Amino acid sequence: GGVGKTTIAKAMYEKINGMFDGNCFLGDVRSKCLEKGCAGLKCLQEQLLCKILLTTKVEVDNVDEGISLIERRLRAKKVLIVIDDVWSEIQLNALAGERNWFGRGSTIIVTTRNANLLNGPGKDYEKYEVRRLDFDKSLQLFSWHTFKHPNPLEPFVEISDKIVSFAGGFPLAAL
């Protein structure tokens, strides 16, 4: 956590969402499901359908019905979906189980701390592992956010170095 998966996914989403018939960013899936269990997953399915179908209300009675609705209603649409912070296969399968649920040219971006979700038979995901930043890049990112400049201001060089060292290459920890 804190390495920048969500930030990268948001940036990609903002950059390319206009190239699709519909789009949806489902943020913080893990905690929404931890809070509400199946009700949280059902709400995420409703959110996905409402956003892509450009409607204010879609009712899903249970997760299985949600799967069926997603598959049936989005099959012909070229969509962009970001599913952020997925923790379990149940979550992934309920929101974007199979490629044929979505139209040709669709893109599904999944962020997870559990890379094993994306491995195994029948899973042909392209993967990108976000790595920690080196010290210089961390310091530059910290400086841009803190001082609006690529380097720390002179009176703050020493404390900035300590903060960035403490964060250990995790951008969000330094901010």
Strand order of the largest sheet: 1-2-3
Outline the biggest β-sheet.
Answer: 3 strands, parallel
- Let me know the number of strands: 3
Number of domains: 2
Distance between the first and last residues' Cα: 14 Å
pLDDT averaged over residues? 89
Q: What letter string, H or E per element, gives the SSE order?
A: HEHHHEHEHHH
Based on secondary structure, the structural category is mainly alpha
Choose one word for the global shape: elongated
Count of separate DSSP helical elements = 8
Percent in strands: 5-15%
Low-confidence stretches: none
Radius of gyration: 19 Å
Helix content: 40-55%
Short description, anyone?
With 175 residues, the protein is mainly alpha-helical.
What is the fold's blueprint, element by element?
Layout: H1 5-16, E1 22-26, H2 29-36, H3 38-53, H4 63-74, E2 79-86, H5 89-96, E3 107-112, H6 135-147, H7 157-167, H8 171-174
Parallel strand pairs: 1-2, 2-3
Helix pairs in contact: 2-3, 3-4, 4-5, 6-7
Report on this model:
This protein is mostly helical and 175 residues long. It folds into two domains: 5-118, no CATH class; 135-173, no CATH class. It contains eight helices and three strands, in the order H-E-H-H-H-E-H-E-H-H-H. The chain has helices at residues 5-16, 29-36, 38-53, 63-74, 89-96, 135-147, 157-167, 171-174, and strands spanning 22-26, 79-86, 107-112. The chain has a three-stranded parallel sheet, sandwiched between helices. Strand 2 (79-86), helix 5 and strand 3 form a beta-alpha-beta unit. It is elongated and about 60 Å long. The mean pLDDT is 89. InterPro entries: Disease_R_plants, NB-ARC, P-loop_NTPase.
